[in-house]
Design brief:
By secondary structure, this protein is mainly α. The protein is 49% helix and 8% strand. The protein contains 9 helices and 6 strands. The chain binds iron/sulfur cluster (2 copies).
């Protein structure tokens, strides 16, 4: 018996691709995963891995084939380096823009979710800590967590908070607010972070943006770790705002493509 994806519920995170020993899975147009039944051997690794638990199939655990690792499977190192560098010098927080811009570029210009599906360092880190190190309960997340309402609601909330961060940066740029040498965790708790500030030669707004962006990255990582502990390792992927936004872009692109064909 082979595995089948419930397409309408797929969040196109690509976690299933990462474990398939037969390269039988692709995410079609960045919208949903599709399993090539000719290649699938029914090992069931994707069924276990899918954070939304939407792949169905019976399988034999006797097959222990593993997928051959690629260079981009080690990008989780970037996540650790990012937080370590930002701990000592906040300007390194700007590097996080890579994880912000690249998924958008893939979605807008290529119409796919290659970043989520292959290169996402944070997803890999969660997979590593929750999977290999066993720090996850590996339970299926509740259905509401991968429902459209929650995913799009969280996306709107996340970007509202992002706008507040941009506004604070603007106020510092305009000279109406002084630089806050603190990191805001979970949009609520201000943690003094002045040890990471060495920037008298750098414009204060540049540092303000760095503190704000580091706060965003830290907050989303904490949420990712919490959902990893409670549910499957990469459960964060089912409501990650970047994942939701890039899937929406891919859907629009696909609709336009089909309309003009
Ligand atoms: S059951 Fe195994 S071979 Fe088939 S798609 Fe899933 S991971 Fe790949
Ligand atoms: S939700 Fe993610 S892991 Fe599950 S089928 Fe879709 S792409 Fe694969």
């Amino acid at each position: 018996m082979k595995s089948v994806v419930k397409k309408e519920l797929c969040v196109s995170c690509g976690c299933c691709i990462k474990v398939c020993p037969k390269d039988a899975i692709e995410v079609k147009d960045g919208i949903y995963a599709h399993i090539n039944q000719d290649l699938c051997i029914g090992c069931g690794k994707c069924v276990t891995e899918c954070p939304a638990s939407i792949i169905e199939g019976e399988y034999s655990k006797r097959d222990n084939k593993v997928r051959f690792k690629k260079w981009y499977d080690y990008l989780w190192i970037f996540s650790i380096a990012y937080f370590a560098l930002g701990f000592f010098n906040i300007i390194f927080a700007w590097l996080g823009m890579i994880c912000f811009i690249l998924p958008l570029l893939f979605a807008i210009f290529k119409g796919n979710k290659a970043f989520c599906n292959r290169y996402c360092d944070r997803g890999q880190l969660l997979g590593l800590i929750g999977g290999r190190l066993g720090l996850s309960r590996k339970r299926s997340p509740p259905k509401w967590m991968y429902s459209k309402y929650f995913r799009y609601g969280f996306l709107i909330f996340f970007f509202a908070m992002f706008f507040v961060m941009l506004w604070n940066t603007y106020l510092v740029f305009a000279g109406t607010k002084s630089l806050s040498q603190a990191v805001t965790v979970l949009w609520t708790f201000n943690v003094p972070w002045s040890l990471a500030y060495h920037g008298n030669i750098i414009a204060p707004w540049v540092s303000q943006y760095a503190f704000g962006f580091y706060s965003v990255m830290l907050t989303s990582t904490i949420l990712g770790l919490l959902t990893m502990l409670l549910f499957k390792p990469r459960s964060w992927c089912v409501y990650c705002p970047m994942g939701t936004m890039t899937q929406a872009i891919c859907k629009v692109k696909s609709m336009r493509k089909n309309k003009f064909q």
